[in-house]
Amino acid sequence: MLGLAFDSRENLYIAVASTGSYRRGVYRLTRGSDRASLFASTDMVWPSGVAVDADDCLFVADASGKILKVSTEGRVSTWFKQVEFTAPDDASACTTGHRIGANGLLVQSDALIFSNTDRASLVKVARNPDGSAGAASFIVAPNCATFRGVDGITSGSAGVIYVVSNQQGAVLAVSPGGTVTTVASGALFDAFPSSLEYSATNRSLFVINAAFGDKKEPRLVKVPLGD
User: Fold this and answer.
1) Which residues 6+ apart lie within 8 Å of 142 measured at CB?
2) Choosing a second label site near 126 at 20 to 30 A (CA), which of 6, 22, 107, 186?
3) Per-residue confidence (pLDDT) for residue 183, from 0 to 100
4) What angle do CA 60, 58, 44 make, to 5 degrees?
C-alpha cells in the first residue's frame, strides 16, 4: 500500500501496487466500513501517489510514467503523460533501479504537482478551466545533488512544498521560487522515508519511514517547524 487520500465524504482511497495476491489499483474504504474494495484499476501499472480535488475526482501518480484521473464512478483516464516529466529514466544518474517515475502527488485548484523519483525533479502541471491538463514545467529541474530519491510531497504554509527523499534520508523544503533546503535528516530518517503530511495545528510535519528492502524498522517521525 502506498498513497492515501480522503474525499469530502471521508471515504479513504488507498493506492495498492501489489505483486502478490491483490490486484493493483486504488481501493476505497467507505466511511463507517471496515473493509476496503477495489475502486479503480484500469491502466494502472504501479499506482503510487493519490490526491482528491474539490470535486472529489481522484488523481493517481502511476510510477510507470503517467498521471491518471479517476471519476467519482471509478472511470479511469490518462490525464497527463509526457516522458521528460512523468516517466522513469534508466539512464539517469539518480535512478533507483526500480523504475519509479511520477510518485508523490499534490492537487491544487489550478495545478497538479508531482515528484519524479528517477529524474530527481518536482513538476507542476496547470489545470485548465475545463479540468484538462495544461502546460507542464519544472519547479525543481532534475538535480541528483539535492533532490535524489524524492518521494512523497505535501503543501505547507506560504506556498512551501515539503518533500521526503528516501535515498538521502531527509525532509526537504521547496520554496515557491524552487529553492531547495534541508529541513531534517539523520538517524530518524535512515529507514526509507516515503510519505509525509503537514499539520497546521501542530505546525509540524509527520513523516512515515517505510523500512523498504533491507532498511531498518518503520517509524512515524514528527518534525516541528518554525513557520
Assistant:
1) 92, 94, 119, 120, 121
2) 6
3) 94
4) 35
